[in-house]
């Protein structure tokens, strides 16, 4: 966990710097955050992989995901042309997903990536994501220095902890209404 968090901070700093800001600009938002988490995913073999998905299409809610895939493929990302492509597993490398928090911070300069996991008839699969997420107290919105009269904020600010609570209140049950999304906070588009 500690090593993953350290790597996540480094990546965050590089991305923040790439937008012309001091690298530590958002550091405080993640200090002592208790919403970051490590998960282990297990995908058993599936007799009818064409009828099922391991994880259906989604974008990660967090800032960044650091994912170790093992050596069995299954992860697919959606390209701009709408095609799904396989992310070839490399057990020596992490896959980094940009999540919704970076999209909001950056006022859409960085876009969170849509992805899904397909299952396999012959071999089970494991994956190990670390989700790097701000503290619950953070009021999240586009970083003010990135907005101006010419570049209006594309999101209104919202409290991150309350957002997560509302988003996961359903505890993965289908309540028949769409889950809360960052798009619910979109303005000026
Ligand atoms: O299993 C994977 O490769 C990715 C899993 C995933 O997208 C997730 O846990 O959010
Ligand atoms: Fe994901």
From TrEMBL:
One Pfam family from the record: 2OG-FeII_Oxy
Fe2OG dioxygenase domain location: 33-134
InterPro entries given in the database record: IPNS-like_FE2OG_OXY, IPNS-like_sf, Iron_ascorbate_oxido_reductase, Oxoglu/Fe-dep_dioxygenase_dom
PANTHER family: 2-OXOGLUTARATE (2OG) AND FE(II)-DEPENDENT OXYGENASE SUPERFAMILY PROTEIN-RELATED
Protein name, as recorded: Fe2OG dioxygenase domain-containing protein
